[in-house]
């Protein structure tokens, strides 16, 4: 909302020295945020004066264009020119080349002299063109930055102006004003008017407010006005589409008269393009009072005006010359010929007011905000009228706004007010809210007395009365909201107004003190520890949408395609996209999509992770029980609702693509593979103090030979808590993802549950270790992890670690077999081991591997 300061000063005494920045600083105290400052004079500098055309000589050019060589007087007759330089005549008669033809000798025009600067930093200087030295330029409205018309230069007589040559054109055109632009929140539609902003400025500064509506005395309604009928017999949104419709008629209008410069300047500062006098008057009244108006050419109306809903198959050509197919929910303005306007949004082209119009019917109506908002969105037709109507308009001001429009049409367009006044409909009842007088104090935390609360609400325009209170209870107030505050519906709305008008700066900033002895829960601390460890290891945390497609859930949410066929998923009733209408069963789809997006933007080496919830449907999904409003649900209803909520366990997952490091001198980075995925998963388990066993796994989204299941071993049975490995190469190729892209995913809740109460670091031995290697030949089907587990069990307590470092197939190893090379590290906590002790432990480990797996030492 742009606020021209000279317009604002008509209703509140803004100090003369205050500029737009000062006004915005005052308004921000009552919650109207500052946006921008608009000063046309900031882009118009230097000598820009009124000139009178003394001569105009057409000169055809070789390129087919005809220019006019003009002489223009730019100083009062008898005065001398103060400018000097090339092409400057001391007599004040300048030679100017002009390509426009819409002016005559004797016309008064705007001349930009050498040294002037126009919008876009366009600097004027004498220049030789078409065989002449042009010492200036005759300007159009577009070149001056005050309009879009570029059909010719600005002739001041078309605006009803006849200033003396040499007069400052910025002053004549009222281009020295300024406007403050503020942001108006959707709940405060009354502030989309000078009336509303002036009232807020008075609240902010304590100055008196002059209500422009109070100065208007509309005549009483009668039966002599243009007939209007509201026929919205089946309200769609709980309220009639139109609650009040005022119509006035003005005859003898000269619609071709120019808009006065003062009005055009105010509208321009307000961000509204001047179109024609009738249109400008309707916009001016809307900006001043906040009531949208619409003007009809009375001679184009066919009978009675009827407000009704659209019928199937109806269309309307709106003022923007577009044919619109109407919806049965659309509220229309109609006559005997059919639809003539989208109520509260935009009028129809058939009844448009033109320069030939002589009689105007004024519409000043109040419409249902929800109906207007839905129509505006449905037709993608934003307008200044719909912006106000869909936020709620003061229903009491309809007749005053119509009277203001009548006054301006009579004064500026030479019209005559017809005696008839139509006022139909039922005005809405104002909202009445009861509130304890101490409720603002309890809610805001600032001590407000009952008198201060009542005084503040009365200043707002509300009626405040004492309400009956229970014995011993705080006094109660009955507050009737003013008609322009359609947003005041509940006690909390009133508290907000008290806090706003008494001053947000009076509310202290108090940091709440955390209760002693509390902090993160054990599960929260574990999740944070995992996230911090992954970030410290060089992973980048991402946050993907939990919405996925059915195909993504079937690929990553289950181990096999057979399970995916009958997979149950949590579906969204109103998804953002029909493609992604299910809640995720795994974090991997989001990680893959994030990787794809980053790879597409040139990031080739990725290590990503995410910790979040997945959604697993149970036996019951959703609930048929709908809790009643304003009543606590019964226990069985709550239990049914709880049973319908899907399980939402925490998961953590990672993805690797590209290389493990950046290339550098004497360093060739290693492509990532399944080992990185397993290492990442094991690192998470290590942070929590959980030992994970790595086993050969199967998953249809992974490479058949490079996928592992991650298992927590326990006395009551082993629990699979995750999967890690390389994604299937065929799928990677089809999805245009890097080869050997690897991922892992862990059930974080299961890991946290398996974690010991505290992670205790193993003691460091001061004695040296003894390392021995062993190579065992086993059948190809034997899993290396099982052999490793047998070696660890057989080696006994002296074994510190056992690691697989080589797998060999080839000469010396029988067909169908493989050689697994392990490094066994031994250490005693209380002594230095002898070679014999280490060898005995290795022999025991080898013997158990031979017993269980048929391993033969190579």
Show the helix and strand layout.
Layout: E1 2-4, H1 5-8, H2 20-27, E2 33-38, E3 48-60, E4 66-73, E5 93-98, E6 108-112, E7 117-118, E8 122-123, E9 127-129, E10 132-134, E11 137-138, H3 141-144, H4 169-172, E12 179-183, H5 194-205, E13 228-230, E14 242-251, H6 261-269, H7 277-289, E15 293-297, E16 305-309, E17 315-317, E18 323-325, E19 331-335, E20 338-342, E21 346-347, E22 360-367, H8 369-379, H9 384-389, H10 398-413, E23 416-425, E24 432-436, H11 439-444, H12 450-460, E25 463-467, E26 476-480, H13 491-502, H14 522-536, E27 540-541, E28 547-548, H15 550-556, H16 561-565, E29 582-583, H17 588-600, E30 606-613, H18 635-643, E31 650-657, H19 674-688, E32 692-696, E33 702-712, E34 719-727, H20 729-734, E35 742-747, H21 748-754, E36 770-779, H22 784-795, E37 799-808, E38 817-826, H23 835-853, E39 856-857
Parallel strand pairs: 13-16, 27-30
Antiparallel strand pairs: 1-12, 2-12, 3-4, 3-6, 4-5, 6-11, 7-8, 9-10, 14-22, 14-23, 15-22, 16-19, 17-18, 19-20, 20-21, 24-26, 25-26, 28-29, 30-31, 31-35, 32-33, 33-34, 34-35, 36-38, 36-39, 37-38
């Amino acid at each position: 909302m742009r606020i021209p300061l000279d317009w604002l000063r008509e209703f509140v005494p803004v100090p003369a020295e205050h500029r737009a920045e000062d006004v915005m600083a005052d308004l921000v105290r009552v919650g109207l945020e500052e946006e921008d400052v608009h000063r046309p004079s900031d882009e118009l500098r230097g000598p820009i004066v009124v000139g009178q055309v003394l001569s105009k000589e057409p000169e055809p050019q070789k390129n087919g264009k005809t220019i006019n060589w003009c002489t223009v007087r730019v100083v009062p007759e008898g005065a001398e020119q103060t400018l000097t330089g090339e092409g400057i005549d001391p007599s004040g008669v300048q030679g100017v080349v002009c390509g426009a033809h819409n002016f005559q000798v004797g016309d008064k025009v705007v001349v930009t002299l050498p040294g002037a600067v126009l919008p876009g930093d366009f600097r004027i200087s004498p220049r030789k063109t078409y065989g002449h030295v042009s010492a200036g330029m005759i300007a159009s409205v577009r070149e001056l930055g005050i309009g879009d018309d570029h059909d010719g230069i600005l002739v001041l007589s078309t605006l009803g102006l006849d200033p003396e040559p040499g007069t400052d054109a910025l002053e004549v055109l009222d281009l020295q004003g300024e406007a403050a632009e503020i942001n108006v929140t959707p709940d405060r539609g009354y502030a989309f008017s000078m009336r509303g902003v002036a009232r807020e400025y008075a609240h902010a500064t304590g100055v008196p407010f002059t209500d422009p509506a109070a100065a208007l005395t509309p005549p009483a309604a009668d039966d002599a006005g243009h007939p209007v009928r509201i026929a919205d017999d089946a309200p769609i949104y709980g309220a009639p589409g139109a609650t009040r419709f005022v119509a006035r008629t003005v005859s003898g209008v000269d619609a071709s008269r120019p808009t006065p410069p003062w009005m055009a300047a105010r509208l321009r500062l307000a961000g509204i393009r001047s179109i024609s006098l009738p249109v400008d008057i309707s916009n001016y009244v809307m900006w001043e009072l906040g009531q949208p108006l619409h003007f009809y050419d009375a001679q184009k109306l066919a009978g009675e005006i009827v407000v009704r809903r659209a019928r199937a198959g109806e269309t309307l050509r709106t003022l923007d010359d577009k044919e619109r197919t109407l919806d049965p929910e659309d509220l229309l303005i109609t006559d005997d010929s059919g639809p003539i306007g989208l109520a509260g949004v935009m009028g129809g082209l058939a009844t448009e007011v033109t320069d030939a119009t002589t009689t105007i019917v004024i519409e000043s109506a109040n419409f249902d905000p929800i109906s207007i908002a839905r129509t505006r969105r449905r037709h993608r037709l934003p307008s200044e009228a719909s912006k106000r109507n869909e936020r709620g308009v003061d229903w009491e001001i309809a007749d005053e706004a119509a009277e203001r429009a009548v006054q301006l049409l009579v004064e500026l367009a030479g019209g005559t007010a017809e005696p008839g006044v139509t006022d139909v409909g039922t005005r809405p009842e104002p909202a009445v809210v009861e509130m304890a007088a101490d409720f603002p104090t309890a809610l805001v935390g600032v001590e407000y007395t009952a008198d201060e609360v009542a005084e503040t609400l009365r200043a707002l325009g509300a009626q405040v009365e004492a309400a009956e209170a229970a014995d011993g209870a705080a006094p109660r107030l009955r507050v009737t909201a003013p008609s322009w505050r359609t947003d005041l519906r509940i006690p909390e709305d009133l508290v907000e107004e008290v806090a706003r008008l008494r001053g947000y700066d009076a509310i202290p900033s108090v940091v709440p003190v955390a209760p002693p002895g509390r902090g993160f829960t054990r599960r929260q601390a574990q999740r944070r520890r995992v996230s911090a460890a992954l970030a410290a290891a060089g992973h980048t945390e991402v946050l993907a949408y939990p919405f996925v497609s059915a195909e993504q859930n079937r690929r990553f949410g289950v181990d096999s395609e057979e399970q995916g066929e009958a997979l149950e998923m949590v579906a969204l009733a109103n998804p953002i996209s029909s493609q992604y209408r299910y809640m995720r069963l795994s974090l991997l789809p989001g990680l893959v999509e994030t990787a794809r997006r980053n790879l597409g933007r040139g990031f080739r080496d990725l290590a990503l992770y995410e910790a979040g919830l997945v959604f697993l449907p149970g036996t019951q999904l959703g609930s048929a029980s709908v809790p009643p409003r304003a009543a606590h649900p019964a226990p069985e209803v709550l239990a049914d609702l709880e049973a319908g909520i899907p399980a939402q366990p925490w998961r953590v997952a990672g993805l690797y693509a590209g290389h493990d490091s950046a290339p550098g001198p004497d360093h060739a980075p290693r492509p990532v593979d399944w080992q990185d995925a397993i290492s990442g998963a094991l690192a998470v388990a290590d942070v929590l103090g959980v030992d994970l066993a790595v086993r050969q796994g199967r998953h249809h989204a992974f490479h058949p030979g490079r996928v592992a299941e991650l298992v927590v071993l326990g006395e009551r049975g082993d629990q699979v808590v995750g999967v890690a490995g390389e994604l299937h190469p065929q799928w990677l190729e089809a999805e245009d993802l890097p080869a050997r892209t690897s991922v892992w995913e862990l059930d974080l809740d299961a890991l946290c549950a398996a974690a010991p109460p505290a992670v205790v670091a193993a003691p460091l031995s001061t004695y040296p270790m003894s390392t021995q290697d062993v190579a065992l030949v086993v059948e190809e089907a034997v899993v290396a992890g099982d052999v490793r587990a047998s070696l660890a069990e057989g080696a006994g307590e002296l074994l510190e670690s056992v690691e697989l470092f080589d797998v060999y197939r080839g000469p010396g190893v029988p067909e169908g077999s493989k050689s697994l090379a392990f490094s066994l590290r031994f250490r005693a906590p209380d002594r230095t081991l002898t070679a014999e002790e280490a060898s005995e432990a290795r022999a025991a480990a080898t013997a158990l591997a031979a017993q269980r797996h048929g391993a033969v030492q190579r």
